[in-house]
């Protein structure tokens, strides 16, 4: 049995975070890859804290607080605002947006167009990009963790072949 075989029931308007790299011991290993699952049926918010996990230094401000806000709509906006001095250990992010209706037209991170991949194998081989799984009804967006505040925009606006 693996984590992929366990069903996950997601409530609309929720944000769920997972360690995407295998971590067996939080005292000796760090979460370096983060998976963020978003069900953007309605506006939602999540606060993520990161610290050394060993000391009480967070009490004196040695932590990173990330506020994740999601605005639903034809353009789903995921905004991450950071406060705190702790240097993040997260290197890579896999953002998953649930939309069973259709694939996005485009995806940007901080107004930079993210490459689109039609085939899952090409997406897996790339360092960054996005891929829509019709089977799962999810957009997979992977990118290097920006060191500052950022915004991802996923466009589910209507488009046709002539407008592409």
Q: Please, could you describe this protein's structure?
A:
This protein has 164 residues and is mainly β. A hairpin with a 3-residue loop joins β4 and β5 (75-83). The strands form 2 sheets. Strands 3-4-5-11-7-8 form a 6-stranded antiparallel β-sheet, with no helix packed on it. The protein has one helix at residues 120-125; strands at residues 14-19, 33-39, 44-50, 64-71, 75-83, 92-98, 106-109, 112-113, 129-133, 138-144, 150-155. The protein has a single domain, classed as Golgi alpha-mannosidase II (Immunoglobulin-like, Sandwich).
Q: What are its keywords?
A:
mainly beta; Immunoglobulin-like; six-stranded antiparallel sheet; single chain; globular; 1 helix; 11 strands; 4% helix; 164 residues; five-stranded mixed sheet
């Amino acid at each position: 049995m693996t984590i992929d075989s366990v069903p996950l029931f997601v409530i609309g308007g929720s944000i769920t975070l997972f360690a995407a790299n295998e971590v067996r011991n939080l005292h000796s290993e760090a979460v370096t890859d983060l998976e963020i699952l978003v069900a953007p049926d309605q506006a939602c918010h999540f606060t993520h804290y990161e610290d050394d996990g060993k000391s009480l230094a967070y009490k004196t401000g040695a932590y990173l607080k990330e506020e994740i806000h999601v605005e639903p709509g034809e353009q789903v906006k995921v905004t991450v605002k950071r406060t705190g001095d702790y240097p993040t250990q997260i290197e890579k992010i896999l953002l998953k947006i649930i939309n069973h209706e259709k694939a996005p037209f485009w995806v940007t991170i901080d107004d930079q167009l993210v490459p689109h991949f039609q085939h899952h194998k090409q997406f897996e081989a790339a360092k960054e990009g996005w891929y829509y799984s019709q089977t799962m009804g999810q957009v997979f967006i992977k990118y290097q963790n920006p060191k500052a505040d950022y915004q991802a925009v996923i466009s589910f606006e209507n488009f046709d072949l002539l407008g592409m």
